[in-house]
Amino acid sequence: MPTSQSADTEPPPRLLRRWEIDAPDAPDPLAAGPGRRCWRVGTADGAFFLKEYAEPDRRRVLFQHAVTTALDEAGLPVLAPMPARGGRTLVTASGRGYVLYPWVGGRGRGGLELTFGQCERLGELLGRLHAALDLLTPPVQQSLLVPTPRAASAAAAVDAMLRDLPDGGGTDFDALTGRRLRERRELLTEFADHQPPEIEVSTVGHLHGAFHAGHLRYGGSGNVTAVLGWDGLATGPVAGEVVRAAARLFACDDERGLDLDRVQAFVRGHRSAFPLDAGQIQSAVHREWWERLCDVAPLRHRYLGEDGAGERGLAALVTWWSAQLDRTLDAFAAPYTAVYADAPGDSPAYG
Q1: pTM given for the model
Q2: So what's the pLDDT on residue 305?
Q3: Which of 32, 107, 162, 247 is 20 to 30 A from 339, alpha carbon to alpha carbon?
Q4: Contact, 116 vs 265, CB < 8 A?
């Protein structure tokens, strides 16, 4: 769960009386994203996690609650919201929505901390989640139009950022910014004809939407005790979520790029619980690389100080991935080949 921080306000008075818990008057505020608030609620019977929605989309939130409750009942490490006294899982007060969850312990772990065996079990867990979502949620339309970013638009945005840099060199950071922007501009020109198709035939379904290290908690045995972050529940190609998750879990922070051995263990685990095929995985790798190549928002955030996501399109990873595109296409799909499928996990890292 998040760590504590100060907060200017508390939940509305008497809110916690809506649940059958013996709660103190002042729950502890926790760190959360901008515009979001949450608290740790301590009681004699244990701790709870209270989350606030400033403007709840009632239909979306209740669907998410139905899904996570079903996953919890199916024995997966997913937290179900606690019903209030009247049976509702979304409680409203002062125009805001509130949801109460059991508190989950455990620690966070980066993907690169995991052994190959743990990577495989983590991939299997994601596959089990996909299988359960497929069983427990309504069918999803099988032909989805997934918009494809345009290299020309991304290149124009980079050109505009370059024009905004100070003339005459500026600071060392300005020089680094210019170098990173020119590198991206050159890649966009070099790979302009590598755009993936607009429509691909693939298995689609309901997805977690944000399966990464920040939403995973581990117990002392190294097993996942909770998969958090279900606000991102969405629909889309299943292979896309597998590739996105692997790219976020096993990316290095420097020019080493992706740890492809861990990627292969993760995909192998997913295949054991929710098999797709090599073609779908490779198409998803192609699209994920392309979207990162054309995503200039992280560059704006990192080098120009603008608001936005600073992680998804790390410049070093985009450069490495572009140079290793054929290799990554083969590596992600390797668990679906007969040779790899028959190979034992005899590495010491499979602990």
Answers
A1: 0.90
A2: 62
A3: 247
A4: yes
